User: Which sequence fits this backbone?
């Protein structure tokens, strides 16, 4: 059990607003694999052993005496980012930007890929009976899509281009459709991933070949839609894809950068500037769990097809290797020995 988390999420000495969770389903994220393989992501450097995992759901095993909204046995989804202080970002509702935030599986904070885990009760959300544990775990990546679409201003009738059909590109597609996008084009190198995108509601599929020019791809997007998209959501972090995103977006539109790549990128900034194309960043998410739960419970969004592989916790290395090799879409680890169901 990752007891270290207990001290990390306390508001004050003797705080009783914590819950002990018996973990059930934990998805593997690309960032988990990156820490496993490289020991760092940007400025976040691993300096001591760290528990991985931040896409998670579980069952309440114990509650602190001040916890009022949860009880033992409740099934919950876990929001992995917990503000440590009431700073300006917390006060304005953008707590994801707080420099001191606790975040599961980001050094030095432990994650929740374990049997039992302690977390702030305020960031545990009860799941409706018709939402599975696996769907609960997938709320984390879905939240990235919701936050990206909010930042982009996706609304009824928006036309959207999504660069990259990996797990994050696919949840951006799902969120965009649920939030009113009329047509979505999605691009990727992988035919398999594009077929999944089609199953999830993409209107147009753009197969990218290595060496394709950014302006050429932008033209293909325009030809598919019959017009340039209002919004482009870039989910790869690849320099050429960022270039394509800017060229593809209509004047006065918005490019949202979700994917993380090299620290520096050469992009057609003047092209964006003279056409008033806004370029907006995305860092994780905030205030998304209630909306995501409502989307899943109502049936407006279906994330179930995203889970292509399942492993018991004992086979974690095999599960991580499956993700590293890019097999399937989402790999799910099952942490409860007595309940391996979705």
Assistant:
């Amino acid at each position: 059990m990752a007891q270290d988390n207990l001290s990390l999420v306390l508001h004050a000495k003797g705080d009783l607003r914590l819950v002990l969770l018996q973990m059930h389903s934990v998805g593997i994220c690309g960032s988990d694999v990156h820490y496993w393989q490289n020991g760092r992501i940007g400025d976040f450097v691993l300096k001591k052993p760290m528990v991985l995992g931040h896409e998670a759901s579980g069952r309440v095993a114990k509650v602190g005496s001040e916890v009022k909204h949860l009880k033992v046995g409740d099934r919950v989804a876990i929001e992995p980012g917990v503000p440590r202080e009431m700073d300006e970002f917390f006060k304005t509702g953008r707590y994801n930007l707080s420099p001191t935030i606790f975040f599961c599986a980001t050094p030095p904070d432990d994650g929740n890929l374990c049997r039992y885990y302690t977390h702030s009760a305020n960031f545990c959300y009860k799941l409706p009976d018709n939402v599975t544990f696996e769907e609960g775990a997938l709320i984390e990546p879905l939240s990235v899509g919701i936050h990206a679409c909010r930042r982009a201003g996706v609304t009824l009738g928006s036309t959207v281009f999504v660069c990259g059909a990996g797990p994050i590109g696919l949840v951006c597609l799902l969120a965009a459709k649920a939030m009113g996008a009329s047509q979505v084009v999605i691009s990727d190198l992988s035919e398999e991933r594009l077929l999944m995108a089609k199953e999830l509601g993409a209107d147009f599929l753009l197969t990218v070949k290595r060496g394709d020019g950014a302006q050429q791809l932008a033209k293909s997007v325009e030809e598919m839609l019959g017009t340039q998209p209002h919004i482009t959501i870039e989910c790869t972090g690849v320099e050429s894809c960022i270039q394509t995103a800017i060229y593809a977006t209509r004047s006065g539109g918005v490019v949202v950068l979700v994917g993380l790549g090299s620290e520096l990128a050469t992009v057609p900034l003047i092209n964006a500037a003279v056409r008033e194309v806004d370029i907006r960043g995305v860092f994780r998410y905030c205030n998304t769990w209630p909306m995501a739960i409502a989307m899943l419970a109502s049936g407006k969004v279906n994330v179930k097809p995203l889970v292509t592989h399942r492993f018991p916790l004992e086979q974690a290395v095999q599960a991580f290797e499956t993700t590293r090799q890019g097999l399937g879409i989402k790999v799910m680890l099952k942490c409860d020995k007595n309940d391996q169901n979705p």
